[in-house]
Amino acid sequence: MTAERLARRTGGISDADQAIATAMTATMAPWPEATEIDTDAPHEQTLDRAMTAIHAHWAGVPRRFRRPRMEPG
User: Fold this and answer.
1) To the nearest 5 percent, what fractions of the chain are helix, strand and coil?
2) For residues 32 and 27, what is the distance between their CA atoms, to the nearest angstrom?
3) Using the 8-state DSSP alphabet, how is residue 58 labeled?
4) Which pLDDT value is given to residue 59?
5) How far apart are alpha carbons 13 and 15 in whole angstroms?
6) How do residues 6-43 score in pLDDT, each as one tens digit?
7) Fewer CB atoms near the end CB (10 Å): N or C, the chain?
8) CB burial class (10 A; 0-12, 13-18, 19+) of residue 61?
9) What distance in Å separates the CA atoms of residue 12 and residue 3, rounded to the nearest whole number?
10) pLDDT at position 57 over 70
11) pLDDT score for 56
Protein backbone atom coordinates (compact mmCIF):
# COMPACT_ATOMS: atom_id res chain seq x y z
CA MET A 1 0.00 0.00 0.00
CA THR A 2 2.79 2.44 0.85
CA ALA A 3 4.53 1.93 -2.49
CA GLU A 4 1.26 2.51 -4.34
CA ARG A 5 0.61 5.76 -2.44
CA LEU A 6 4.13 7.01 -2.99
CA ALA A 7 3.86 6.29 -6.71
CA ARG A 8 0.68 8.40 -6.95
CA ARG A 9 2.27 11.47 -5.37
CA THR A 10 2.61 14.46 -7.62
CA GLY A 11 4.91 16.61 -5.53
CA GLY A 12 4.81 18.57 -2.36
CA ILE A 13 7.03 19.45 0.56
CA SER A 14 7.61 15.90 1.79
CA ASP A 15 10.83 14.23 0.75
CA ALA A 16 9.57 10.75 1.68
CA ASP A 17 10.02 8.23 -1.08
CA GLN A 18 10.11 4.45 -1.44
CA ALA A 19 13.69 4.25 -0.09
CA ILE A 20 12.64 6.03 3.11
CA ALA A 21 9.53 3.85 3.45
CA THR A 22 11.63 0.70 3.04
CA ALA A 23 14.18 1.89 5.62
CA MET A 24 11.43 2.73 8.10
CA THR A 25 9.81 -0.67 7.63
CA ALA A 26 13.13 -2.37 8.31
CA THR A 27 14.07 -0.30 11.36
CA MET A 28 10.85 0.79 13.06
CA ALA A 29 8.81 -1.35 15.41
CA PRO A 30 5.18 -2.07 14.47
CA TRP A 31 2.57 0.19 16.01
CA PRO A 32 -0.12 -2.21 17.28
CA GLU A 33 -2.15 0.56 18.95
CA ALA A 34 -2.56 2.43 15.67
CA THR A 35 -5.97 2.67 14.08
CA GLU A 36 -6.07 2.08 10.35
CA ILE A 37 -8.44 4.35 8.46
CA ASP A 38 -9.26 3.76 4.81
CA THR A 39 -8.62 7.09 3.10
CA ASP A 40 -9.97 5.78 -0.21
CA ALA A 41 -13.47 5.86 1.31
CA PRO A 42 -15.70 8.92 0.82
CA HIS A 43 -14.46 12.01 2.68
CA GLU A 44 -17.30 12.11 5.22
CA GLN A 45 -16.91 8.41 6.02
CA THR A 46 -13.15 8.80 6.46
CA LEU A 47 -13.63 11.81 8.71
CA ASP A 48 -16.25 10.04 10.79
CA ARG A 49 -13.96 7.04 11.34
CA ALA A 50 -11.05 9.30 12.28
CA MET A 51 -13.16 11.30 14.71
CA THR A 52 -14.51 8.09 16.23
CA ALA A 53 -10.97 6.85 16.71
CA ILE A 54 -9.96 10.13 18.36
CA HIS A 55 -12.90 10.28 20.68
CA ALA A 56 -16.15 8.32 20.65
CA HIS A 57 -18.02 11.47 21.69
CA TRP A 58 -17.64 12.86 18.17
CA ALA A 59 -19.21 9.88 16.38
CA GLY A 60 -22.22 11.00 14.41
CA VAL A 61 -21.89 14.66 15.40
CA PRO A 62 -22.48 16.85 12.34
CA ARG A 63 -19.44 18.85 11.36
CA ARG A 64 -19.42 22.13 9.55
CA PHE A 65 -16.44 23.11 7.48
CA ARG A 66 -15.77 26.82 7.45
CA ARG A 67 -13.19 28.83 5.67
CA PRO A 68 -10.78 30.65 7.96
CA ARG A 69 -11.64 34.23 8.67
CA MET A 70 -9.37 36.71 6.89
CA GLU A 71 -8.85 40.27 7.96
CA PRO A 72 -9.25 42.94 5.26
CA GLY A 73 -6.25 44.61 3.78
Assistant:
1) 45, 0, 55
2) 15
3) G
4) 62
5) 6
6) 777 777 777 778 888 888 888 888 787 788 888 888 99
7) C
8) exposed
9) 17
10) no
11) 62
pLDDT at 21: 84
What residue type is 42 in one-letter code? P
CA angle 59, 61, 62 (to 5 degrees): 135
27: Cα separation from own chain's centroid:
22
Distance CA 58, CA 48 (A): 8
Three-state SS sequence of 6-33:
HHHCCCCCCCCCHHHHHHHHHHCCCCCC
